[in-house]
Design goal:
The chain is of the alpha/beta class. The protein is about 30% helix and about 30% strand. About 5% of the residues have low confidence. The structure holds 3-phenylpyruvic acid. The site of 3-phenylpyruvic acid has 13 residues, from helix 1, helix 4 and helix 6.
Length: about 300
Amino acid sequence: MKIEKPKVAIQGIRASFHEEAAIRYFGENIETIECNSFKQTFESLKKREADYVVMAIENSIAGSILPNYTLLLDYGFPVVGEIYLPIQLHLMALPGVKFEDIKYVTSHPIALRQCVDFFDEYPHLKIVESSDTAACAKRIRDEQLTDTVAVANALAAQLYGLDVLERRIESNKRNFTRFLIMTQHDNVEKKPANKASLCFQVSNKVGALAKVLNIFAEEGVNMSKIQSMPILGKRNEYNFYVDIEWDEQKQYDTSIRQILKYTHNFNILGEYERHDDEPSSTPKPHRAERSIRKYINIRRNA
Ligand SMILES: O=C(O)C(=O)Cc1ccccc1
């Protein structure tokens, strides 16, 4: 079932990186449902207020966002897609504010961590962490703060009417965040998949995990990620979250049949098409970029 204008739940507000990811995945014709927490995004999917959830799962600097793995397992909504977003960060302030006027820098902790080299040069600036980059930009606009800058994306500067004082202040120009897209079971479109996210346990015995990984290797299935999470209250027991990719469906089917024999609590969190775009730091005059601009205009005029 193709939804004309999907309702997409994100943690954070419009123009956050989560919304940027949603626009890049779905295009500009979406309705964003702003939520205060990742759990709330899943709740909104459960209540069918949202058609999809877009949720960050890992970041090239901060690593895996572990609590989000637990949400995937607890709610059991299928992962139907992924998107890698290059995180390009700008320093923004109210129009007229000069760099010399600034005392405070506000942003999401991940965004701030990505700009350490820039801020090392200005030790007098006080760093204030917040729940989302766009909310920082909005607060500067709403409260007319003249001593504060936000670190956020170009979308936030445009939507909240801030001027960019310094572009691309991220330390690593090739940093990216990977987002997953979840939906309700009955919304799943049957598209050919070449990637899957799995979760399973193995017994605490010599070679138990190696056996599973060897099956993937023997079938020519590539493991692109492995993450372990302790199981609450059970010493030395872990859930393994594994992402795998394949060329031929048969390779996947055979390896799943095999590994079922060597795992327990086996779950397929989702089967989907892998996002192949090389995460690039060079801003191309990109179709998504144009759609973001168009989208801002639509929203402003709405
Ligand atoms: O704060 C935001 O805009 C978010 O969506 C969270 C986030 C922050 C930095 C990198 C990726 C996601």
